[in-house]
Please model this.
Amino acid sequence: NQIAMKERSRLTSIFVARRQSELKTFDARKTNINRSTEISEASQSAAVGADGSMSAQGMSVKTDKNETGGNVNYKADQIKYQTFRPDGLETATNEIFVSLGYRPIPNSQVEAKSEGKFNVGLFEEEFASSENISNATLSNAFEAISGMIPLLVIARLDVGAPIRDSNEEPIVVVDVKAQVFRYDGLFYETVGSFGPVQIQSAGITSTAAETNAIKEASREAASQLGAQLLQNNIF
Model:
């Protein structure tokens, strides 16, 4: 069993975290429409009396009709994000992959070996402004590890603002999405996927709550991805 575990592949991982740095909200914009319609009706009648005299009478009716309506337009909030690298995150997740028999390589070593083609900073820059990482950045990372590391783990963590109720400890919620890719000779295929899932954790301080939530979300993602790799016999 130990021999089989040693034969499992190398892998490297990129866990990118971001938090809101600025939030701009917009009020609902309402457009009112008023329409007024005037309707006039007139009628006349004439009669001849017994003495041959004639009389006439008329009636006019004026009706005012008012209609109101409109619509409400909503504009999405503008959110700016700041990416960061949580301390100890790679160590915490690599511990799980090692326990499953995989051989994780720190991404700093991969960056140095690839002479910058494998660039974690680009992942962070793009995640600060978009939900997805561009194909160009992914392709560069895949090419950089081709022939050396067959498995690449990419995880994205959205870190919420601390929530505090009365005298209770602050709580932080983290949205996590993660995937494992494997190179098949031409393309990198997805061989494991986790999320999006919300993980929350508390702490004595807001900083402690954030750190706990990030590590818990990352370790849960690593555990679930590792279990899928084992189940699918991905070596």
Summary: The two ends are 14 Å apart (CA to CA). The chain has one domain: 2-25+80-231. Residues 191 and 232 are 8 Å apart (CA to CA).
